[in-house]
Amino acid sequence: MHPTRTTRTRARVPAAPPTPLGAAAERLEGRDKVTGAARYATEHAHNPPDCAYAWPVPATIARGRVTSVDTAAALALPGTLAVLTPATAPRLGETEDPTLAVLQDATVPHRGWYVALAVAETLEDARAAAAAVRVTYAAEPHDVTLTEDHPDAYRPDEANGGVPALRERGDARAAFTAAPVRVDVTYRVPPLHNHPMEPHAAYARWDGEGDGAHLTVYDSSQGANPVRSVLAALFRLPKDRVTVVSEHVGGGFGSKGTPRPHVVLAAMAARHTGRPVKLALPRGHLAAVVGHRAPTIQRVRLGAERDGTLVSLSHEVTTHTSRIKEFVEQGAVPARVMYASPHSLTDHRVVPLDVPSPSWMRAPGEAPGMYALESAMDELADALGIDPVELRVRNEPATEPDSGLPFSSRNLVACLREGARRFGWADRDPRPGVRREGTWLTGTGVAAATYPVLVSPSTATATARHDGGYDVLVNATDIGTGARTVLAQIAADALGVPLGSVTIGIGSTRLPYAPLAGGSSGTASWGWAVHRACASLAERLAHRTGPLPAEGLSASADTTEEAQRTPPFARHAFGAHFAEVQVDTGTGEVRVRRLLGVYAAGRILNPRTARSQLIGGMTMGLGMALTEHSTMDPAFGDFAERDLASYHVPSHADVPDIDAHWVEEHDDHLNPMGSKGIGEIGIVGTPAAIGNALHHATGVRFRELPLTPDRVLPALA
């Protein structure tokens, strides 16, 4: 039976709370977005009529040097204003990120590295001028192929997030050898790309001259403050003479978490030409210049007693990085959190190659790492003849295995139990390959999920106005998550006023400092400062008599001290994913019929936006499992899939039924709201749940993503 094409999404919505916090409030900016009133980086109506446009020129070799750049034909075209090259571009200041040192020398570290920039009167003129630039190179031999036994592989001091690359407890190898039941398997995840709907884009303008020059940038970024800091250093300006606005951002998924070359190029072009400049990267360029999820080769070894108790857990990850910037996907880190085992080994090795620099992508580390770990747990359950849900429950730790710290809260078992109940897991026939309807085989699978609770220092200001309203200012960034709405709810709750009384200002370095949107930490970080500022304002108002001063009454907050305090708890969100899939034995096509996610993520501040985030993460995990991948061409030295025609993301028709649910969780060790991040945990367990369901459907174990027909059909045959 072919799966239906009708999509249903649902989530439990509790009864309306007595305060705005916890209510399923609509997005404050929703109408602006659907009517086009919300302006993104290159759409601002107040841009002057003399705005110019830029188009970059990518390198066409995988390694080597530029020997010459012929700009004559480009400069002769109508509308061309300038062509910046490594010889003519403005010299930049120091940067800790080598990917931002654009047009500073002749080195080409990978294919797609920018070697020139055309600036012209119109976008079409700029594109034509870029195409007319002629670049010659001295090419060198390149290597872009990752293997687990690559001779250049090394163990870094740290993986991403500052975590140690290697952690050992006990003697995992000896315990594994002695274990009565063993699983020793290797999983592969290909390179993945973020592909936000709004490409990376910026508008840059210089005002004033010399020491009084001021740079204003509208940037599609997950954080205006990091962009300002980088631009100030590169252009040798005090920070107070750089303004960055990132008010509306059309997605990022990590790729906009750090400044990217486009914003530097836009500012360079504006300075060089003396005119405002817009630069929006073509989608085909993104794979090479804004980061990607690095491929991983992951070996997982699980040793267990016959009752399923783990005695040894090893997770070893090999990944790649570029030659100019080390980035180490921390795929083994989740294994330090998930299951009790007296002996553990988690390790990372990295291979520098002639590839674009990898970077952050939704749930970095957790998404690929939990795919391998949770797939291996399913293989262990199969070897033991134990239900996969029960196996996970039996290995529930009392404290965080790696650190020994108590959990601030850990309700993974509750997620597994509730998910099993809602999914109908008890009715499952554990035998693989027995549910057949015509050419379709059906199976079900489960996987657990985790994501750390992160928080960064933030500031905020709240002001009571004469008209009875309140202004709340914080340089948060809403990348499509509904951050404005949730922050307004936090403010209204702390002030004890209706949600409609609060106006939120975000997305500009003119506002109080706040960290970027990343690591599922935005609401916790910004919300803490907003809550404190509003609570302080409410207290001032309660003790005040007489009219407000002309400027209103304000209060500010700075959470640096609290946010930087090391908590005596391990703080994580947890979840359980359940999937039902069908596979056509005649074509190898895999279709997901049902996806269920049950989460323990602290207090849910807005069920409507939380549901959207969880469903979005699960959909992205479905793409990771079934369709998304990129292929590095070893001869050409470039990713073959560079647009949405070749890099396949899932659509609504790819999963008829998605169900997002959460268990009640009260955790007093987080922040004043009691919330955990929800933006990333939805992706974490989904690929493994789908892969495990495919094994249950077919009896064949697949250990490399994505599960495309060309991979599935030969195995079925």
Give a written overview of the molecule.
The strands form 6 sheets. Strands 4-6-2-13-10-11-12 form a 7-stranded mixed sheet, with helices on both faces. A 6-stranded mixed sheet has the order 1-27-24-23-18-17, with helices on both faces. Strands 8-16-15-14-9 form a 5-stranded mixed sheet, sandwiched between helices. Helix 8 (366-384) packs parallel to helix 16 (686-698), helix 11 runs parallel beside helix 12 (522-542) and helix 14 packs across helix 16 (686-698). Helices cover 25% and strands 24% of the residues. The chain contains 17 helices and 27 strands. It is globular and about 75 Å long. The protein has 717 residues and is α+β, with helices and mostly antiparallel strands. The two termini are 20 Å apart.
Short recap of the structure:
With 717 residues, the chain is an alpha+beta fold. Helices cover 25% and strands 24% of the residues.
In what order do the strands lie side by side in the largest sheet? Answer: 4-6-2-13-10-11-12
Percent helix: 10-25%
How much is the average pLDDT? Answer: 95
Q: Note the beta-strand portion.
A: 15-25%
Number of strands: 27
Number of helical elements: 17
Can you lay out the helices and strands and say which pair or pack?
Layout: E1 8-11, H1 30-35, E2 52-58, E3 64-70, H2 72-75, E4 80-84, E5 107-108, E6 114-120, H3 123-132, E7 134-139, E8 167-169, H4 172-178, E9 181-189, E10 201-207, E11 214-219, H5 224-234, E12 242-245, H6 261-273, E13 277-280, H7 283-289, E14 296-304, E15 310-322, E16 344-353, H8 366-384, H9 388-394, H10 412-423, E17 435-437, E18 440-452, E19 459-464, E20 470-473, H11 483-495, E21 502-505, H12 522-542, E22 553-558, H13 560-563, E23 572-584, E24 590-600, H14 607-626, E25 632-633, E26 638-639, E27 657-662, H15 681-684, H16 686-698, H17 709-716
Parallel strand pairs: 1-27, 2-13, 11-12, 15-16, 20-21, 24-27
Antiparallel strand pairs: 2-6, 3-5, 3-7, 4-6, 8-16, 9-14, 10-11, 10-13, 14-15, 17-18, 18-23, 19-20, 19-22, 23-24, 25-26
Helix pairs in contact: 8-16, 11-12, 14-16
